[in-house]
Amino acid sequence: MMKMKILLLLLAFTAFASAAQIKDVRFACDAKGCQVVFAFASDKNLPTFFQKYDAASKKLTVGFSETTFALGEGDYDVDANSKFVKSMKVFKEAYKGMPFLKIEMDVGAAVTSDKNEIALDKSNFLIKLKSKGGKSWTLSKLFAERKKAAEKQAALDKKAAAKAALEEKKRLAEEKKAAEKAALEEKKAAEKRALEEKKAAEKQAALDKKAAAKAAAEEKKRLAEEKKAAAKAAAEEKKRLAEEKKAAEKAAAEEKKRLAAEKKEAERRALEEKKAAEKAALEEKKRLAEEKKAAEKAAREAEKLFAEQQKQIDKAVLEGGAISALLPGLKEMTVLIGSGLEQFRIVADEAIDIQNVSSADKNNTITIGLAGPQKSPIFRIGAGSLVKSVTWGANGLKVQLKGSAQPAVLVQDGVFVLQITEKGINKDGFMFWSAQPKGIYVRDWLKPADDRPNFDSFVKNLDKGSKKIISGSQTFHLRPVVRELIVVADETEFYAAPNENSQVMQRLVFGDRLVSLDMKGQYRKVQSGNRVGYVDRRAVGFFDELSSVQEERLKQIDKERGTNLTGGAVPVGSQLDGLYEDRVTYSSFGRRDPFVEVDGLVEEGINIDQVELVGIIWESDVPVAILVESKNPSISYTVKEGDKILNGKVLKITQTDVLFLIQEFGVSRRYSMGLPDKLGGQK
């Protein structure tokens, strides 16, 4: 048994000896500045260290892994008026299975950051502060002085407590004696009161008996009077019922007479309505005949117009001239389908303004207020599931939708666009249909759903009639990206144009969701529902730009509205830039090709503090991020999820951001890097 105890003591001593120990904490200042000194018992096995500053609570916290404190855990007061360290709290806390000794310091105005310089002087660990003029101190001395004062005060308190106990004992004895005397007097008084109460009770009982007899007599008299009144009331009720019966018989006779008069009046009105209906039917027949005559006349005129147009076309063919495949006044009509998106696009000779675009009427037709020809054929659209036909009307260009389509209506740079989510084609790529003055063109860039993406085969099979900008090896496919804006101001205006003097279409409040379309100086072009307008760029922000306070407020507002929009729901609509071609161009401009792997890249590791994110290639299976060095943009890299970097790895790649996991000094942290916006700023 004794051997077992000795073995346990040796194990405990070995574990204790392997851990670092802080003997004392000092604060000293000189001409260069001030510093906090943590004196370790030895310069061997020094621990991992971190420091963190909280501006809200004005606390600087330092931590040491597997470390003990010779003075013990607890709270230590230093100097409440100091502009450096006012007090210290020493405690232990586990992090991922590793015990940490944390020293939480309440600091003054001279300490405002956790980027303080650190140094090691033999077994002394120093945190150097930039400010000067502090009062030096040693925690063990302060602790010893305060301990001595506390012991002296404890002795005085003990002596005072003994004196108070003696006085309390004397007071209790006097109180006991007084209580016994009061109890005796109370007993005598209680016996006297009991005797008096007995006499009073006997007297009250006699009075109650007399009062009960009187009340019984009065109750008998009251019941007799009530019986007499009930008989009288019954006679009056019988008389009233007889009168009501007589009145009801009279009312029934009058109602019968009224119904007979109403029947006669109804028969008269029915006869008049029949005559009016026959007259209206005759007029309707006459109107239909006139409309039929007018329709036949219009058909003859249309046939004449088409004959003239065909004659002009035949003449143009004979003369070798160009023939337009479009309605007059239009430059292009385009249908684009694929990658979850379907768009119908019109380019007119005259720029289109969103103010001149109406909502869909009962015939599911949208009217664009443009000046056009008085007579027009109907251009029927055979491609897509959005638009049925297009023609010129009295009020402008009419676009009739198919079925129950409810697309988003957008106008960008004077071009009219309809857009919906496409779910019918589960393939990679696009279908493209375009009516232009020189003819109608169809392009099919769809690949089978089971065909694995292969860039070389895509380039080889590319439509021969498509435009190639540069060599195929520098062309790759990107998906359109949706970014949701959130109103962060309490209230802001939704303008029809990028000008504060323009029409205010509605007022937006904190938490409203918008779709980002473009940037116009101080204003963002956005979509709210089916409306497109402008808001002040300072009044909106993306979700990853919100502060923690704004995030909590947004969660509360979503809860009150009964929605859960912070979870990443995709809004209706999308950015229009670059959606009309399924190819984008990349040129190296003298830089290293980022798609060529760099030898030794994993071993050396990329320092994320020295690179910038310039692009994301978003594919369904393996998204790839493109990074360039900040000081030398000619050097670039590509990374995938799981790739190693300096002190960490690539954790996640989204359509707009890359998330890294960094491990330094035994502590893990996450770092996010976002794509730059069009103006070069960070999203």
Brief rundown of the structure:
The protein is an alpha+beta fold and 683 residues long.
Would you give an account of this structure?
This protein is of the alpha+beta class and 683 residues long. The protein folds into 5 domains: 20-135, Immunoglobulin-like, CATH 2.60.40; 159-323, no CATH class; 330-476, Sandwich (Immunoglobulin-like); 484-567, Roll (SH3 type barrels), CATH 2.30.30; 588-674, SH3 type barrels (Roll), CATH 2.30.30.830. The chain contains 5 helices and 37 strands. Strands 1, 2, 5, 9, 10 and 11 form a 6-stranded mixed β-sheet that branches. A 6-stranded antiparallel β-sheet has the order 18-19-13-12-20-21, with no helix packed on it. A hairpin with a 2-residue loop joins β34 and β35. It is flat. It starts with a helix and ends in a 9-residue tail after the last strand.
Between the first and last Cα atoms, what is the distance in angstroms? 69 Å
Helical residues, percent: 25-40%
Determine the strand fraction and express it as a percent band.
25-35%
Q: Could you name the ranges where pLDDT drops below 50 across 5 or more consecutive residues?
A: 3-16, 463-482, 567-593, 595-603
- Quickly give the structural class: alpha+beta
Q: How many distinct helices?
A: 5
**Mean pLDDT across every amino acid position:** 79
| Number of DSSP E strands | 37
| Overall geometry | flat
Q: In total, how many domains does the architecture comprise?
A: 5
The profile of the biggest β sheet is: 6 strands, mixed
* Rg, Cα atoms, Å: 47 Å
